[in-house]
Amino acid sequence: MVAVVSAVIAVLGAIFTAVSGYWWQSRLRSAEHLNYLSHYRDSLLWSAFDLQSRLWNILYGWEVNRSGSGRGFIRAFLLEGSEPEAVYARRSTAYLFAEYLGWAEIFRRDIKFLDLGRGDRNWQVMMILSQISRIIGSSNNTGGRSFRVFRVDQRAIGELMIAPESKPGERWCIGYAEFCRRSTQDSEFGGWIEELLGDLDLAAREPEMASERLAELQNQLISLIDLLDPRAIRFPAAERSRFTKGEIARRLADNR
Predict the structure, then answer these.
(1) Rg (CA), the chain
(2) What is the dihedral of CA 85, 91, 97, 101, to 10 degrees?
(3) What pLDDT is stored for residue 123 in this prediction?
(4) In this predicted structure, what is the pLDDT of residue 129?
């Protein structure tokens, strides 16, 4: 009898160990999943916010210049600024575009690691990413050539922005310093980035042509931010202004 009881206890102990081990492994996998989700969502969110913020500054600057009430971003840094300021304007703007493309590419590659909550949230994010890609790659006559990057080239730039030592589920993009180094010292990388570096100069020459693409892109990036941060926890609603010429004209009039 003692032997039977001991055997039963041993079996129950093994079952408990197996169940508790499975439970802990599930908790660990869940924690890892949440880490992936938080890392990817926040990184894509920040890159979208930084890019839309630069686009807002460019678009608002054109309206300021037109109204004669001051100097906008391109005029102050690129056209009338010092050479270091002009270099900064070109490089930082190109980097913000390239960083966004990098995180968009990461998101496409590693979508299987993510679940943004509701069943259709991933699908909605992918739809907005596709719409943004369409805007950047559009070659219609009213959009101009500045900041036009064809879809496959967008993915190539995004691929180059992914840190080579990162791995699926734990990827990240290279930083600004590495971007500047590679764009000047790596001929292959520089070849892909060359047009982006010159696009700000092109936009300065044809602001009316460039404004349509950049305004549409800025608005879609706000839509992406709204989807990734629906409760405005990371970025307050007050920081999510959509560029419209009517609103800008009103703001400039109010400031006079």
Answers:
(1) 24
(2) -160
(3) 78
(4) 93
Of 252, 234, 256, 250, the residue nearest 66 (C-alpha): 252
Give the 3-state secondary structure of residue 172: coil
Distances in whole angstroms, Cα of residue 75 to Cα of each of 63, 66, 249: 11, 11, 19
On whether the CB atoms of residues 33 and 110 are closer than 8 A, the answer is no
Query: What DSSP string describes 175-242?
Result: -HHHHHHHHHH-HHHHHHHHHHHHHHHHHHH-HHHHHHHHHHHHHHHHHHHHHHSTT-SSS-GGG-PP
Report how far residue 134's alpha carbon sits from residue 245's, in angstroms, rounded to the nearest whole number. Answer: 22
Q: Return d(Cα 169, Cα 150) in angstroms, integer.
A: 27
* Cα dihedral 9, 11, 14, 20 in deg (nearest 10): -80
Encode 89-100: b = buried (16+ Cβ within 10 Å), e = exposed: bbbbbbbbbbbb
d(CA 208, CA 144): 8
- Mean pLDDT, the chain cut into blocks of 10 residues (256 residues total): 60 52 40 53 94 96 87 93 96 98 91 57 84 92 82 96 89 96 96 94 90 94 94 91 76 61
Residues sharing a CB contact under 8 Å with residue 42, sequence separation 6 or more, in sequence order: 234
The pLDDT tens digits of the residues spanning 121-175 come to 777 888 899 999 999 999 875 667 899 999 999 999 999 999 999 888 789 999 9
Structure-token match 């949230």, residue found:
121
Q: Where are the beta strands (DSSP E) in 89-204?
A: none
- HEC sequence for 37-53: HHHHHHHHHHHHHHHHH
What pLDDT, on a 0 to 100 scale, did the predictor assign at position 151? 95
